[in-house]
């Protein structure tokens, strides 16, 4: 307890008795009775041979239960194991290389490190750090090409994470880093540590080819990343049809079925090759294992096919479509639970362009807006 606040009252013996109060604050001053504590108690680390001087090997973590003026900043010292001055330890507890290590010269070092706090008198504690020198990278990283599809309302893309690069390396201790060519950083960013791709707001309609590379510190490998951006027209929402799938997650649909189903769907509903199929959104059905896919078909000469026409086409081709994935229902109007006939059901569809859903797999990522369907009985 760092302090107490007492209220003291004095009362006299008169009639009537009179009194007054005063507040007394008692601060408990700290003495430096706790030593610094390393977490964990001892460390192990590795460094690859031929890494440049100054390579970070390890970050020491130290805490102290005393108050701030008796704790940090800490003073770090390597007591033993660094007789040839192969290592340096900075004031923040980062252990770095001071030479270029060779696996053939030595494979292991054991350092005794001391941490001293700022109190008076100072308290100290010790830890041991085992550093292994391993062979440098002999394998190049491997990365899977990534294709990203973004669907957004006209000029209303808010930005966000749109996918993730999947890369591996057969060298066990390699740490992979990801970079993006500087001229593309005005539109996209890549997290250097985990490969997540971030799109900034306001992307225009079109195709973007990103110059991304992954490095293990020795080898650098380019990755093919292609981003397709499609902007929705308001007219599309008035001519949509929903296909409801059974027993499939959004990620499985995107990674396993979307390309094949899109191709089969085009053959089923397009009257002319120049017509355009637009997948507007995919979204899980709440409380079930079903998945809704919202789409519209644009006529080459202008306008969109009416939902009734598309549903007729889909019904005729349903057997072919189910060769790709099982279909639960084909919906134009969703009057489920409403006691009215089909012709008396009115549906409205709304898109929340600022609530994006990202379904990402190793090879393909699909980013689309959340949609809401409202239906009412017109009986």
Automatic annotation (TrEMBL):
The keyword S-adenosyl-L-methionine does not apply. SUPFAM superfamilies: Cadherin-like. Coiled coil: none annotated. One of its GO terms (cellular component) is plasma membrane. Its main location: membrane. It is found in: Membrane. The keyword Oxidoreductase does not apply. Keywords: Calcium, Membrane, Repeat, Transmembrane, Transmembrane helix. Residues 4-38, 39-143, 154-245 form the Cadherin domain. InterPro entries: Cadherin-like_dom (IPR002126), Cadherin-like_sf (IPR015919), Cadherin_CS (IPR020894). GO terms for biological process: homophilic cell adhesion via plasma membrane adhesion molecules. Pfam families: Cadherin. GO terms for molecular function: calcium ion binding. PANTHER family: FAT ATYPICAL CADHERIN-RELATED, PROTOCADHERIN-LIKE WING POLARITY PROTEIN STAN. This is FAT3 protein. It comes from Neopipo cinnamomea. The lineage of its organism: Eukaryota, Metazoa, Chordata, Craniata, Vertebrata.
